[in-house]
Hints:
Helix content: 25-40%
Oligomer: single chain
Number of helices: 12
Shape: globular
Amino acid sequence: MTTADAFAQAMRALPPLPARAIIINCSTRVFTTLALMSALRHAGMPVLVIDCASTDDSLSWLRGLQRAHTFDLLEAPLRPHGATLDRIFLASRDESLLLVDSDLELRNGDLVPELRAAASADECYGGGFLHSDPTCSIGPATARERGRYADRMWIPLVWMKTAPVRQALQQGHSFLHARDYFEFPWSRALSRWIYQRYRLPLLRRISLASLRDARQRLHGERAAFVDFDTGARMHAALQAQGLRLADLGEPHWSQSVHHYHGITRATLQAGKPNATDPRDPRAEVDSRLRTLYGIDPPGDA
């Protein structure tokens, strides 16, 4: 039996619940501990921590926490975030899952009941915050044609019903990150190839801006590419089923959660852009663990 098969089997062995909070840990035990303690205090539901092949002695640390705190702990292979989410929803027997990023802290008990209530509507696949940004500059720094981020659920904290997500997964959809290229609107494969010209100094000045109208006519997109960050494809698939995300918006987002943003990415790959260096908020996290939760954190992140 592979590690992935063992994880799926262990997930299915858990007793089915109306709702369960999920925290995925990848060698960020200090930040995961803060997320865990905040979920135990404020989520009002059982919590499952999934350790993905951590190299910072996370398993021993988390097993030690289980002596004083009640939560489940499973092991899974290290995979891209979206692939791990696919496996979780395919294996879970719970009615709903609350995804809690390992670098997120719930700061009061007001939010989760609101998420539960908002997500209960028949037309909703879940509750949370809509992450929408119409333009982005990712890709080669020299690129002139701007792209667009596809709308998605704010993946660091979202309540999702498992049944519609599982159905979408079984239809071939995924949480995985992807990018669609439209610069040459008659061929996505050729569009992807053409976009690589920004990596070649002699070709960077070539602009295909004249094709914007054709892109909009054929694909409904004037952008040169659309970036589907983790969960965006799933959001689109669920919308196609006639479902929507119940978006709580403000003031819930700013008052109820604190997200350190990208700690796992920066831990797994030092110097990763658009990610918080784990050393920067470490003193704050250590202080909150000691003063709010009575936990003396380990000596490294």
